[in-house]
Specification:
Distance between the termini: 70 Å
Number of strands: 10
Radius of gyration: 21 Å
Strand content: 15-25%
Shape: elongated
Order of helices and strands: EEEEEEEEEE
Helix content: under 10%
Number of helices: 0
Length: 108
């Protein structure tokens, strides 16, 4: 029994009938072996997953808001807050003890 060529999985980077089309997906996005449509990973959006999440957003298709305090940015893939010096905690709302600074207040 033979299956039509478009039903078979194509090698990475190819799609379509007889896998003759080149995928246009960027930034590690998955390419559908039939249509060539891109499925973006966290932190990316756009037809070809070419656009990073705008500031203040993260996740799949950048559809989640950063939950950080005082307009602090977050990692576009994970949503982890980028705390400025002197602040720490999940949302960067905690103040470091006197004489310490940086991530988790480890700097002295």
């Amino acid at each position: 029994m033979s299956f039509p060529s478009f039903l078979k999985a194509c090698p990475a980077g190819k799609y379509g009938e007889n896998c003759q089309q080149e995928c246009q997906c960027e930034n590690g996005a998955a390419c559908d072996h039939i249509s060539g449509a891109c499925t973006c990973g966290p932190g990316w959006r756009g037809t070809f997953c070419q656009t990073p999440c705008p500031a203040g957003f993260h996740g799949i298709e950048c559809n989640q808001s950063c939950d950080c305090g005082h307009g602090i940015s977050c990692h576009p893939e994970t949503g982890v807050c980028h705390c400025p010096k002197g602040k720490h905690g999940d949302k960067c709302l905690k103040t470091c003890p006197s004489g310490t600074y940086g991530f988790a207040c480890e700097g002295v």
